[in-house]
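Bump. Still looking for Long-chain-fatty-acid--CoA ligase structure tokens.
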Amino acid sequence: MEEKALYSYLGLLWQVRSYQRKNLTVAEIFRQNVAKHPNKECFIFEDTEWTFSQVEEYSNKVANVFRNHGYRKGDVVALMMENRPEFVCLWLGLSKLGVIVPLINYNLRQHPLIHSITVARSQALIFGSELLS
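Sorry for the wait, here they are.
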């Protein structure tokens, strides 16, 4: 069993180095997977399944909304949400524009939260509605 895990890990390292040599972004790698497996499940969350195509479509909508609001490569938009597919879709969509996305721990409150947002020099903050309080 350990030997199989080692081979899987070495295969993953080889694949990552291949992507690095090609200078591919996460968005480009994701697009390759969408092309290969458009209808394959990408996320299973609670009672909902998201295919690679659905994640690509959602993230493209995010990219378009933020592009239309003037965000571009090098801008900083912090993201603070609980774990769910929209979290990844938002991060992926923003990264397609070259927007830097600091991921803020949703358990932070008061001074630690203010510090994290300030240190990230965020121009905007996206947060889940569950964190309104």
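The chain is about 55% helix and 15% strand.

Edit: fixed formatting.
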